[in-house]
Design the sequence.
């Protein structure tokens, strides 16, 4: 079994509904065990900012699926939950990304691990640091907490204290 961290986000319709359903699908997938789920964070969009705010978070899992199989599984879950593919960085019902998979570094036309922009995004680093502040970024060799503490961005982020996703498992 390998440790992995999955980032999730939604900014269309009932964001909580999409997130809850995606987490439930992940929990029901053979070869994946959810270890922990971060808090939800309300965040401003990145890239294309003329869209609604996102709800984002991170799931810590154990899996025996190889990285590419895990990616394909997550994309199937996105589709089954209702994701409609639009423009890059545009609005989405649900988005599931492999952030870190063990200490794997992989860069092919199909998959890039660790996520190539995670170290630049507060909406990824904050929930990831909540779950695993001391893990090392496989390329940058810095802890997630260090990356978060030294991030220079004005992206707004707000922890949603009143939402608990643990029942989704």
Sequence:
């Amino acid at each position: 079994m390998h440790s992995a961290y999955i980032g999730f986000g939604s900014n269309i319709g009932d964001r909580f509904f999409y997130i809850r359903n995606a987490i439930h699908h992940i929990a029901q997938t053979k070869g994946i065990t959810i270890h922990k789920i971060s808090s939800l964070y309300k965040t401003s969009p990145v890239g294309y900012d003329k869209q609604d705010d996102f709800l984002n978070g991170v799931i810590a899992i154990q899996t025996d699926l190889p990285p590419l199989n895990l990616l394909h599984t997550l994309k199937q879950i996105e589709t089954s939950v209702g994701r409609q593919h639009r423009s890059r960085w545009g609005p989405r019902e649900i988005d599931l990304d492999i952030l870190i998979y063990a200490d794997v570094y992989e860069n092919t036309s199909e998959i890039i691990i660790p996520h190539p922009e995670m170290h630049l995004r507060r909406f990824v680093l904050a929930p990831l640091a909540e779950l695993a502040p001391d893990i090392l970024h496989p390329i940058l060799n810095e802890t997630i907490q260090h990356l978060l503490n030294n991030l220079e961005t004005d992206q707004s982020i707000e922890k949603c204290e009143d939402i608990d996703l643990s029942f989704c498992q």
Q: What stands out?
A: DSSP finds four helices and eight strands in the chain.
